[in-house]
# Entry
Amino acid sequence: MFDMVQKKQISPVFNPRKSIVVYHGDCLELLNTVPEGLVQLIITSPPYNLGKEYEKKLKLSQYLEQQEAVITECVRVLSDNGSICWQVGNYVDKGTIIPLDTVLYPIFIKLGLQLRNRIIWHFEHGLHCSKRFSGRYETIIWFTKSNDYVFNLDPIRVPQKYPGKKHFKGPNAGQFSCNPLGKNPGDLWVIPNVKSNHVEKTIHPCQFPVELIERFVLSMSKEADWVFDPFLGTGTTAIAAVRHKRKSMGAEIHQKYIEIIHARIEKELDGTLRTRPMFKPVFKPEDAGSSLTTAPWKNADLEQQVSLYKDRKEV
Ligand SMILES: C[S@@+](CC[C@H](N)C(=O)[O-])C[C@H]1O[C@@H](n2cnc3c(N)ncnc32)[C@H](O)[C@@H]1O
# Structure
Protein backbone atom coordinates (compact mmCIF):
# COMPACT_ATOMS: atom_id res chain seq x y z
CA MET A 1 0.00 0.00 0.00
CA PHE A 2 1.27 3.50 -0.86
CA ASP A 3 2.51 5.19 2.28
CA MET A 4 1.74 8.92 2.54
CA VAL A 5 4.34 9.42 5.30
CA GLN A 6 7.05 7.86 3.17
CA LYS A 7 6.33 10.45 0.49
CA LYS A 8 7.79 13.18 2.69
CA GLN A 9 11.31 11.91 2.13
CA ILE A 10 12.76 13.16 -1.14
CA SER A 11 15.60 10.90 -2.18
CA PRO A 12 18.51 12.37 -4.20
CA VAL A 13 19.12 9.00 -5.92
CA PHE A 14 16.93 6.11 -7.07
CA ASN A 15 15.77 4.05 -4.11
CA PRO A 16 12.96 1.52 -4.55
CA ARG A 17 11.80 2.12 -0.96
CA LYS A 18 11.30 5.88 -1.44
CA SER A 19 8.35 7.53 -3.15
CA ILE A 20 9.97 10.71 -4.46
CA VAL A 21 13.31 10.85 -6.24
CA VAL A 22 14.81 14.17 -7.40
CA TYR A 23 18.21 13.60 -8.98
CA HIS A 24 20.54 16.59 -9.47
CA GLY A 25 22.47 15.82 -12.67
CA ASP A 26 22.18 14.34 -16.14
CA CYS A 27 19.05 12.25 -16.59
CA LEU A 28 21.06 9.47 -18.24
CA GLU A 29 22.99 8.95 -15.00
CA LEU A 30 19.72 8.51 -13.11
CA LEU A 31 18.18 6.32 -15.82
CA ASN A 32 21.20 3.97 -15.66
CA THR A 33 20.29 3.15 -12.04
CA VAL A 34 16.59 2.41 -12.68
CA PRO A 35 15.53 -1.24 -13.21
CA GLU A 36 14.01 -2.34 -16.51
CA GLY A 37 10.21 -2.14 -16.74
CA LEU A 38 9.73 -0.25 -13.44
CA VAL A 39 8.03 2.94 -14.65
CA GLN A 40 4.36 3.20 -15.62
CA LEU A 41 4.33 6.70 -17.13
CA ILE A 42 7.04 8.91 -18.56
CA ILE A 43 6.00 12.46 -19.28
CA THR A 44 8.41 15.23 -20.14
CA SER A 45 9.19 18.39 -22.00
CA PRO A 46 12.81 18.15 -23.12
CA PRO A 47 14.96 21.16 -24.07
CA TYR A 48 13.90 22.31 -27.58
CA ASN A 49 17.43 23.28 -28.65
CA LEU A 50 16.51 26.96 -28.86
CA GLY A 51 19.50 28.21 -26.85
CA LYS A 52 17.40 28.93 -23.74
CA GLU A 53 19.30 29.76 -20.57
CA TYR A 54 19.37 26.08 -19.54
CA GLU A 55 20.66 24.61 -22.84
CA LYS A 56 23.46 24.92 -25.38
CA LYS A 57 22.18 25.17 -28.95
CA LEU A 58 23.36 22.15 -30.96
CA LYS A 59 23.16 21.14 -34.60
CA LEU A 60 19.80 19.42 -35.13
CA SER A 61 21.50 16.06 -35.83
CA GLN A 62 23.45 16.25 -32.53
CA TYR A 63 20.31 17.24 -30.65
CA LEU A 64 18.43 14.26 -32.08
CA GLU A 65 21.29 11.91 -31.13
CA GLN A 66 21.10 13.16 -27.53
CA GLN A 67 17.34 12.77 -27.49
CA GLU A 68 17.61 9.25 -28.91
CA ALA A 69 19.98 8.23 -26.11
CA VAL A 70 17.49 9.44 -23.47
CA ILE A 71 14.42 8.00 -25.23
CA THR A 72 16.16 4.60 -25.60
CA GLU A 73 16.82 4.45 -21.85
CA CYS A 74 13.28 5.64 -21.09
CA VAL A 75 11.88 2.80 -23.19
CA ARG A 76 14.04 0.32 -21.27
CA VAL A 77 12.65 1.43 -17.89
CA LEU A 78 9.03 1.63 -19.14
CA SER A 79 6.65 -1.16 -18.11
CA ASP A 80 5.01 -3.30 -20.81
CA ASN A 81 1.63 -1.59 -20.29
CA GLY A 82 3.16 1.85 -19.80
CA SER A 83 3.03 5.14 -21.70
CA ILE A 84 5.58 7.69 -22.78
CA CYS A 85 4.52 11.27 -23.58
CA TRP A 86 6.96 13.76 -25.16
CA GLN A 87 5.84 17.39 -25.17
CA VAL A 88 7.54 19.57 -27.78
CA GLY A 89 7.25 22.72 -29.86
CA ASN A 90 9.32 23.96 -32.77
CA TYR A 91 13.05 24.13 -33.33
CA VAL A 92 13.71 27.46 -35.08
CA ASP A 93 16.62 27.74 -37.50
CA LYS A 94 17.23 31.13 -39.13
CA GLY A 95 13.53 31.88 -39.19
CA THR A 96 12.38 28.49 -40.51
CA ILE A 97 10.64 26.10 -38.15
CA ILE A 98 11.02 22.36 -37.68
CA PRO A 99 8.20 20.83 -35.61
CA LEU A 100 10.19 18.65 -33.22
CA ASP A 101 7.55 15.93 -32.97
CA THR A 102 7.99 15.19 -36.69
CA VAL A 103 11.72 14.55 -36.32
CA LEU A 104 11.43 12.69 -33.00
CA TYR A 105 8.62 10.40 -34.22
CA PRO A 106 10.98 8.07 -36.20
CA ILE A 107 13.08 7.50 -33.06
CA PHE A 108 10.08 6.18 -31.11
CA ILE A 109 8.95 4.03 -34.04
CA LYS A 110 12.46 2.55 -34.44
CA LEU A 111 12.27 1.53 -30.77
CA GLY A 112 9.03 -0.38 -31.45
CA LEU A 113 6.60 2.06 -29.77
CA GLN A 114 3.04 2.67 -30.94
CA LEU A 115 1.63 6.18 -31.38
CA ARG A 116 -1.77 6.58 -29.65
CA ASN A 117 -2.38 10.32 -29.96
CA ARG A 118 -0.76 13.50 -31.08
CA ILE A 119 -2.32 15.96 -28.67
CA ILE A 120 -2.45 19.63 -29.57
CA TRP A 121 -1.97 21.81 -26.51
CA HIS A 122 -3.42 25.19 -27.49
CA PHE A 123 -2.63 28.25 -25.39
CA GLU A 124 -3.82 31.68 -26.23
CA HIS A 125 -0.85 33.87 -25.39
CA GLY A 126 2.79 34.12 -26.41
CA LEU A 127 5.23 36.09 -28.51
CA HIS A 128 3.79 37.99 -31.48
CA CYS A 129 5.52 37.09 -34.74
CA SER A 130 5.76 39.63 -37.54
CA LYS A 131 6.95 37.32 -40.35
CA ARG A 132 4.72 34.28 -39.76
CA PHE A 133 1.58 33.49 -37.77
CA SER A 134 2.22 33.59 -34.03
CA GLY A 135 2.73 30.10 -32.57
CA ARG A 136 -0.16 29.19 -30.29
CA TYR A 137 0.20 25.44 -29.81
CA GLU A 138 2.65 22.73 -28.96
CA THR A 139 2.18 18.98 -29.25
CA ILE A 140 2.41 15.97 -27.00
CA ILE A 141 3.10 12.69 -28.73
CA TRP A 142 1.81 9.75 -26.68
CA PHE A 143 3.29 6.30 -27.34
CA THR A 144 2.68 2.94 -25.68
CA LYS A 145 4.95 -0.07 -25.52
CA SER A 146 2.20 -2.55 -26.44
CA ASN A 147 -1.49 -2.82 -27.32
CA ASP A 148 -2.27 -3.67 -23.71
CA TYR A 149 -1.88 -0.32 -21.95
CA VAL A 150 -3.40 1.54 -18.99
CA PHE A 151 -5.91 4.16 -20.08
CA ASN A 152 -8.58 5.35 -17.70
CA LEU A 153 -10.82 8.04 -19.17
CA ASP A 154 -13.26 8.61 -16.30
CA PRO A 155 -11.09 10.83 -14.04
CA ILE A 156 -10.38 13.23 -16.89
CA ARG A 157 -13.77 13.49 -18.60
CA VAL A 158 -14.95 17.05 -19.27
CA PRO A 159 -18.51 18.42 -19.27
CA GLN A 160 -20.50 18.05 -22.49
CA LYS A 161 -21.64 21.19 -24.30
CA TYR A 162 -25.24 19.92 -24.42
CA PRO A 163 -25.66 17.42 -21.54
CA GLY A 164 -29.45 17.60 -21.94
CA LYS A 165 -29.33 15.99 -25.42
CA LYS A 166 -31.59 12.94 -25.93
CA HIS A 167 -31.61 10.06 -28.44
CA PHE A 168 -34.17 11.04 -31.01
CA LYS A 169 -34.72 7.60 -32.58
CA GLY A 170 -34.05 3.89 -32.00
CA PRO A 171 -34.64 1.81 -28.88
CA ASN A 172 -33.32 4.57 -26.57
CA ALA A 173 -35.39 7.38 -28.11
CA GLY A 174 -36.30 10.02 -25.51
CA GLN A 175 -33.52 9.02 -23.08
CA PHE A 176 -30.53 11.22 -22.30
CA SER A 177 -27.67 10.29 -24.62
CA CYS A 178 -24.63 11.68 -22.72
CA ASN A 179 -22.36 9.89 -20.28
CA PRO A 180 -23.18 11.54 -16.91
CA LEU A 181 -19.45 11.51 -16.04
CA GLY A 182 -18.71 13.79 -18.99
CA LYS A 183 -17.09 13.33 -22.38
CA ASN A 184 -13.66 12.37 -23.67
CA PRO A 185 -11.58 15.61 -23.70
CA GLY A 186 -10.42 14.91 -27.26
CA ASP A 187 -6.96 15.57 -28.63
CA LEU A 188 -7.07 19.38 -28.63
CA TRP A 189 -6.59 20.77 -25.15
CA VAL A 190 -7.06 24.46 -24.44
CA ILE A 191 -5.03 25.17 -21.30
CA PRO A 192 -3.31 28.49 -20.47
CA ASN A 193 0.49 28.39 -20.54
CA VAL A 194 2.54 29.49 -17.54
CA LYS A 195 3.44 33.08 -18.40
CA SER A 196 3.65 36.42 -16.51
CA ASN A 197 0.82 36.45 -13.97
CA HIS A 198 -0.08 32.73 -14.05
CA VAL A 199 -0.39 31.55 -10.46
CA GLU A 200 2.25 28.83 -10.96
CA LYS A 201 4.95 31.04 -12.54
CA THR A 202 8.52 30.67 -11.23
CA ILE A 203 11.80 31.98 -12.70
CA HIS A 204 11.93 29.03 -15.13
CA PRO A 205 11.24 30.16 -18.72
CA CYS A 206 9.37 27.02 -19.88
CA GLN A 207 7.13 25.55 -17.21
CA PHE A 208 4.29 23.07 -17.79
CA PRO A 209 0.97 23.98 -16.13
CA VAL A 210 0.22 21.35 -13.47
CA GLU A 211 -3.30 20.75 -14.85
CA LEU A 212 -1.82 19.61 -18.19
CA ILE A 213 0.18 16.86 -16.49
CA GLU A 214 -2.62 15.82 -14.15
CA ARG A 215 -4.58 14.61 -17.17
CA PHE A 216 -1.78 12.21 -18.14
CA VAL A 217 -1.12 11.05 -14.59
CA LEU A 218 -4.79 10.31 -13.91
CA SER A 219 -5.51 8.55 -17.19
CA MET A 220 -2.26 6.61 -17.75
CA SER A 221 -1.19 5.45 -14.29
CA LYS A 222 -2.65 4.12 -11.06
CA GLU A 223 -1.97 4.98 -7.42
CA ALA A 224 1.54 3.97 -6.27
CA ASP A 225 2.85 3.62 -9.85
CA TRP A 226 6.14 5.30 -10.74
CA VAL A 227 5.86 8.46 -12.88
CA PHE A 228 9.15 9.61 -14.42
CA ASP A 229 10.33 12.92 -15.93
CA PRO A 230 13.92 12.99 -17.25
CA PHE A 231 13.87 16.82 -17.58
CA LEU A 232 12.13 18.01 -14.41
CA GLY A 233 12.61 21.79 -14.78
CA THR A 234 10.53 23.10 -11.87
CA GLY A 235 9.18 19.65 -11.02
CA THR A 236 5.68 20.03 -12.45
CA THR A 237 5.46 16.32 -13.25
CA ALA A 238 6.47 15.51 -9.68
CA ILE A 239 3.74 17.83 -8.33
CA ALA A 240 1.04 16.18 -10.45
CA ALA A 241 2.28 12.70 -9.47
CA VAL A 242 2.47 13.42 -5.73
CA ARG A 243 -0.93 15.12 -5.82
CA HIS A 244 -2.50 11.93 -7.14
CA LYS A 245 -0.58 9.50 -4.88
CA ARG A 246 1.84 8.24 -7.52
CA LYS A 247 5.57 7.73 -6.89
CA SER A 248 7.64 10.36 -8.63
CA MET A 249 11.12 10.29 -10.07
CA GLY A 250 13.09 12.69 -12.26
CA ALA A 251 16.31 14.55 -12.99
CA GLU A 252 17.29 18.17 -13.40
CA ILE A 253 20.74 19.34 -14.33
CA HIS A 254 20.67 22.90 -12.91
CA GLN A 255 20.99 23.53 -9.17
CA LYS A 256 18.76 26.63 -9.18
CA TYR A 257 15.85 24.57 -10.55
CA ILE A 258 16.54 21.73 -8.08
CA GLU A 259 15.89 24.23 -5.29
CA ILE A 260 12.60 25.23 -6.91
CA ILE A 261 11.59 21.56 -7.31
CA HIS A 262 12.18 20.88 -3.60
CA ALA A 263 10.30 24.01 -2.54
CA ARG A 264 7.32 23.20 -4.78
CA ILE A 265 7.10 19.55 -3.71
CA GLU A 266 7.26 20.55 -0.06
CA LYS A 267 4.46 23.07 -0.58
CA GLU A 268 2.43 20.47 -2.44
CA LEU A 269 2.83 18.03 0.47
CA ASP A 270 1.77 20.75 2.92
CA GLY A 271 -1.22 21.61 0.75
CA THR A 272 0.00 25.19 0.20
CA LEU A 273 1.11 25.08 -3.44
CA ARG A 274 -1.14 27.36 -5.50
CA THR A 275 -2.04 25.97 -8.91
CA ARG A 276 -4.65 26.68 -11.56
CA PRO A 277 -7.37 24.08 -10.93
CA MET A 278 -7.95 21.28 -13.41
CA PHE A 279 -11.11 21.79 -15.49
CA LYS A 280 -11.30 25.55 -14.79
CA PRO A 281 -12.73 27.11 -17.97
CA VAL A 282 -10.42 29.43 -19.87
CA PHE A 283 -10.87 33.04 -18.77
CA LYS A 284 -13.01 35.19 -21.05
CA PRO A 285 -12.27 38.92 -20.48
CA GLU A 286 -15.64 39.87 -22.02
CA ASP A 287 -17.48 37.79 -19.40
CA ALA A 288 -15.50 39.51 -16.63
CA GLY A 289 -16.88 42.84 -17.85
CA SER A 290 -13.44 44.34 -18.59
CA SER A 291 -13.65 47.67 -20.42
CA LEU A 292 -10.36 46.80 -22.18
CA THR A 293 -12.19 44.31 -24.42
CA THR A 294 -13.74 47.17 -26.43
CA ALA A 295 -11.42 48.96 -28.86
CA PRO A 296 -11.24 52.59 -27.66
CA TRP A 297 -10.51 54.13 -31.08
CA LYS A 298 -13.20 55.33 -33.43
CA ASN A 299 -12.72 55.52 -37.20
CA ALA A 300 -11.12 58.96 -36.90
CA ASP A 301 -8.49 57.71 -34.38
CA LEU A 302 -7.78 54.45 -36.15
CA GLU A 303 -5.06 55.80 -38.44
CA GLN A 304 -3.22 57.39 -35.54
CA GLN A 305 -3.34 54.11 -33.58
CA VAL A 306 -2.09 52.12 -36.61
CA SER A 307 0.90 54.42 -37.02
CA LEU A 308 1.66 54.27 -33.30
CA TYR A 309 1.58 50.48 -33.52
CA LYS A 310 3.83 50.39 -36.61
CA ASP A 311 6.40 52.67 -34.97
CA ARG A 312 6.63 50.64 -31.80
CA LYS A 313 9.86 48.83 -30.92
CA GLU A 314 9.97 45.14 -31.93
CA VAL A 315 10.45 42.71 -29.04
C1 LIG B 1 11.70 22.46 -21.05
S1 LIG B 1 12.44 22.41 -19.48
C2 LIG B 1 11.30 21.44 -18.55
C3 LIG B 1 10.32 22.26 -17.79
C4 LIG B 1 9.35 21.42 -16.98
N1 LIG B 1 8.44 20.67 -17.84
C5 LIG B 1 8.56 22.25 -15.97
O1 LIG B 1 7.33 22.17 -15.94
O2 LIG B 1 9.16 23.02 -15.24
C6 LIG B 1 13.78 21.30 -19.69
C7 LIG B 1 14.65 21.18 -18.44
O3 LIG B 1 15.61 20.12 -18.67
C8 LIG B 1 16.81 20.46 -17.98
N2 LIG B 1 17.88 19.64 -18.60
C9 LIG B 1 18.52 19.86 -19.77
N3 LIG B 1 19.36 18.85 -20.04
C10 LIG B 1 19.23 17.95 -19.03
C11 LIG B 1 19.80 16.68 -18.75
N4 LIG B 1 20.69 16.12 -19.57
N5 LIG B 1 19.41 16.02 -17.64
C12 LIG B 1 18.50 16.57 -16.79
N6 LIG B 1 17.93 17.79 -17.00
C13 LIG B 1 18.28 18.45 -18.10
C14 LIG B 1 16.93 21.96 -18.18
O4 LIG B 1 17.75 22.56 -17.20
C15 LIG B 1 15.46 22.42 -18.10
O5 LIG B 1 15.13 22.86 -16.82
In short: The chain has one domain: 10-310. The chain has a mean pLDDT of 91. Residues 26-27, 45, 47, 54-55, 204, 206-208, 231, 233-234, 236, 251-254, 257 surround S-adenosylmethionine (CB under 6 Å).
